[in-house]
Batch of 2 targets.
Target 1
Amino acid sequence: MGTNAPLLAVEELSVAFGGRGPAPVKAVDGVSFSLEEGKVTGLVGESGCGKSVTSLALMGLLPDRGVEVGGRALMQLPKGPEDLLVLPQRRMRDLRGSQLAMIFQDPLSSLNPVVPIGRQVTEILKRHRGMRGEPARKEAADLLHRVGIPDPTRRLSEYPHQLSGGMRQRALIAMAVACRPRLMIADEPTTALDVTIQAQILELLRDLVTEEGTAMLMITHDLGVVAGLCDDINVLYAGRAVEHAPRAPLFTEPTHPYTVGLLGSIPRLNAPRGEPLTPVRGSVNDDIAWTDGCAFAPRCDHYTMDCLQGPPSLVERDSDPGHVHRCVNPIGHAEVVDRAVLDSPAVVGEEEDR
Amino acid sequence: MPTSPSSPTPLHKRKAEKVDRLAELMGSRTDEGRASGIWIDAFRRMRTNPMAITGAVIVVVFVAVALFSPLIAHYSPTSQAWGDEVFPNRNEFVGPRAENWLGLDHLGRDLYSRFIIGARQTLLVGVVATLVGFCFGALLGGLAGACAVLGGRWGRRVDNVIMRVIDMMLALPTLLLAVTVAALVGPSLTTVMLAVGIAQIPIFARLLRGAMLAQGNREYVLAAQSMGVRRHKIALTHILPNSMGPVIVQSTLTLATAIIDAAALSYLGLGNPDASFPEWGTMLAEAQRFLSTAPALAVYPALGIIITALGFTLLGESLREALDPKLRK
């Protein structure tokens, strides 16, 4: 594993639903990105753009009927690189929890309501590390302690409904990190939490990534989260990546009109009272097929006839090779410089710790 | 994966220490020794629920009466010692008196003794029939449900086969199914229990499978899968316990139905061949002929059935509530 290949390289991942129906729906359509150890990669977009489907596809948790998965997801496993998308279910089950782990959106519904927290944690320790009895219980308490749950021994015998929302998410994170996975997928981990807890959870995730060297895929629609946590960001629209850049350039010099629209739609505390919000007009349903042109064109303020002539391709910006966009008429920067987002609470929480 | 137990590397040492210190100062107790099984917790909660207590009292009294009926009954339930005092044809019945607490039935037998001895029969039929239905139904339904949720292509096939068989059983009316079984095996007490029990299988099976399918779509099942938990463990420790609630309630309701169904079978002559032996259902069926002239004959066994069924229902309902973590405090 001494190579400098990324931990997980996703190439042209595509997921289509509805095999036998008239026309399959392409939820994810050729998305590529890579995850590196100790780094957080963001997957951003509005509902229905394929974020969660991407994560489920990588975990091998999509239903086995009526789903067509294409592309490659090469992961560096201890025994050499393997394509997660073609591994048999049996192998995937061994990898899930030990090499790959996932944190879900709603911590309450992600915990079994009738099983005490302790048993849910030790179950994973037993499954992947063969621990049982008192050592497993002690390790579970240690795990809860590590994720910042006070009085962990008592919490072990409590049921999920007896914990607060933040505690539940911490418990889920404890379960996810129980076997020190090398890759963690967080699917909107803070959406169901209130803002102060959000900041704490993000800080915890950040610490896990830096201290354990885990690679993390952060799926979110919250640009505040992205600004505070992600090193690298992919913006998805209608199943395709429309912009990819490291954090700073994405926020200071976004080039794709969709990214610009997303940044512009964030409500601001310092805006004059009574000023209407600026949404991205239309909805994600108002799109055209990527094969005909840019799917975002119907909602775009900058589209020209060029946008409707076949699929736009991902191109690198001349001035900045790490910054890629899929747009015929990219917006020149200097138009939007967004410090306000970078000052969101998520970022503040992180800086305080340094 | 390294299997060495990780020494706790506190992720934010300072903060965790502060939090621990705070917890210490707040005197929060770590009651580790406290047993905390679901059932123990449920029992603890039920002790304070008046509904549960009422149900439990009824059930306990009923079971006690049934178990010790030979000691409680005054006379033999089959002895027609007062046969010359009762003339159903002339509407001459004997009501409650010091000698016979509930009076005499149409053949001059002591109604009180018959009622008490009958409780035993009723309990036996109800419990055994429900157990038969519950065990086989839960087994089939649980297997089908587990296969449907987690089994892939083969699982769906197994589920399909089981459920089509259950559908066939469900297509027959309960009583007709019971009659068919009873007619095939021949009339006896075992037949009644078996027949009523078999007739209850499809309800249990469908109920459990349906509950398991609903639970299978819940996020915690996906979460467990994302942790690599094995499929049979997901089915047994995650889906099944969350699906048992409705089945437990159903079994208490079934106890009541089983008693009534058993009575119907006895009435049709497919029950205990010894018709003189008391059983609340048989007594009810016999009393039907004198409903207009001597309604009391029907009232006692009917009350017995109603109160017993109520007791089991109250107990089951409060058990469900106690097991439901959402209603826990």
Target 2
Amino acid sequence: MSSQPLSQNQERFELNLGPQHPATHGVLRVKLLMDGEYIVDAEPVLGYIHRMHELMGENRSWAQYLPNMGRLDYLSALSYNLGYVELVEKMAGIEVPERAEYIRVITTEMNRISSHLLWFGAFVLDLGGFTPLLYAFDDREQILDLLEAVTGSRLTYCYYLFGGCYNDVEDDFLSGCLAFVKRLRTRLPMYHNLVTKNVILRQRLEGVGPVSAEMCRKYGATGPVLRGSGINYDLRKNEPYSIYPELDFDVPVYPEGDSMARFMVRMDEMEQCLRIIEQAIAKIPEGPVMAEKVPKMIKPAAGDYYHAVEAARGTFAIRAVSDGANQAYRMKLRSPTFSNLSLFQEASRGMLLADGLAFMGSLDLVIPEIDR
Amino acid sequence: MNKENVIQELQALAAEGMADQPEVASVAAVAGPAGEEEAKPQTAIPPEPRRNGVLEVDYAVRGVHVDVQIQGDQVVRAAQILDEAGMTLEAITGVDWINDQELEVVYDYSYTGGSCFRVVVRARISRHEPTIPTVSGVFPGANWHERETFDFFGIHFEGHPQLEYLLLPEDCDFHPLLKDFKGC
């Protein structure tokens, strides 16, 4: 810590937040220039768990790259699985059976809820409330058990294959999902009573960390951050993929742009996920879960391809360049929290340090996905 | 946002770039947009390799609506056109075309205000002297994307406020996504 006096009463000093700090939820370092309790400048320093996933994409085959997708955003890994298999299916012209599409949507949305639940618990923990974390983990555990039964893993899923899913789901899974939907519908009102209506939480979040729609646009922020700034933009609606157009759900949008708005967007999104899961289970057809003719060696036509999906934190996109070989010539991964965090420096100027942490929590950072 | 206007403005910009390069423009006028470097086995961007121009491509296959290729020094003007149209810069990246001794800088733009519209802007620069102006003055979000591209490809973004390593360690001396990178 170095300090340089500015005036008689003022003294600015540098402060390192992280890289090993519980509030950053991972190895993120923020170089802060402080004026007393106020943030003058906050520069995030990235790269502590950089693994060069993009280079890995160039030196293994399309199929061998599948497990990498579970290791970007480990909290909503299935959205990343989905984005990647849909891209390769688009490149290679593989048709996916309808049942597989429904399974993909059900499992992805379950994963989205588990991601939001973990964010909910950890975020309130950041603000000083320990109890909600335990409740949230109780619910999340149900999802992990259900997903473990079909995917074989609890966190770093690698369940979708080009042309379908690794295996079919059983009726136990579907009835388990319905039971979970019922359960969470009774729990969410409790969360709202316990947390959302809590006056301390509201004072910590309301009006804190305002992010305008224009700032989101300039920085490329997406997901709940953008929807908390009043922009109705959700790729499941705006750029429909899979079977989302056949399902009826709303996109929660809050215009305030503060941390409370982002909190409410995610809380409401969980309810919408429940609606999606319920409808998908009611509609799921019988049939195969894998396309019949999927080539073992995938050799897409040369050219470049782009595909984006709505992950739990915003737009996850892949730009793949193929030269006709069994592996990518270039694999660019565009991760949502990279862009969402990039506005932190500008938006946090003049904030109290404690508010800065609340603001950072409301951005819902997952560091392995930023660092890639 | 009027998509047709945006496409027209980008077409005018790309045409300007072709005029800057008389030898390419004259070839293009006779032989179509193929240009002088036809022998590019790896760069088969449909329908054929090109030096400049605006293509409206098949969104269902490629995932973008408009594919713009311009000169390196025009990327800021392209960013301004797309900024005025209300579009967002989604990502910046590079591609190393080592057989052509060129680096490609790729800008992905999307529209978050309504119906889906995606534009990709690409510019090719020399691999030996990879410099291109920064667009971080137009889109502050480009700051990190450009730093990342600098990390991976060593592309120098002129006028960037803080062109330092972002994801790689600050003392590293390699650019891992260059095709001649052999590990460290």
